[in-house]
Design a protein that fits this description.
Number of helices: 3
Shape: rod-shaped
Radius of gyration: 23 Å
Strand content: under 5%
Number of domains: 1
Order of helices and strands: HHH
Structural class: mainly alpha
Distance between the termini: 61 Å
Length: 103
């Protein structure tokens, strides 16, 4: 890389560090899922340097894995919520209430 290209791409390692941390946090469940943000590649850094493309591919794979994990958690939470909603409220009725905990 020429010195000019080196200076332009110098911020990419920090961007990848941040993205790796986000993927780790998502997998660990420590991400605020209410904070909806869309990532855009930094335009001031220019294209990602060739020597960082493999690392960027690993970061992309980690994010895809985190998305898969979050989708599973979302479906599971939805099933749990549906089960909770199926239980009648605390109002007294003349009907017996049974909760099937095995199925």
């Amino acid at each position: 890389m020429s010195p000019d290209n080196s200076a332009i791409g110098a911020g990419w390692p920090e961007v990848l560090d941040e993205m790796e941390a986000l993927a780790r946090d998502a997998t660990a469940g420590s991400v605020d899922v209410r904070a909806k943000s869309v990532w855009s590649p930094p335009t001031h850094l220019g294209p990602i340097p060739v020597e960082l493309r493999e690392r960027a591919g690993h970061v992309l794979a980690a994010h895809r894995d985190a998305i898969d994990d979050l989708q599973v958690l979302h479906r599971t939470a939805g099933r749990h919520l549906a089960a909770v909603r199926s239980v009648p409220s605390g109002q007294r009725t003349d009907q017996s209430v049974y909760l099937d905990v095995t199925g």
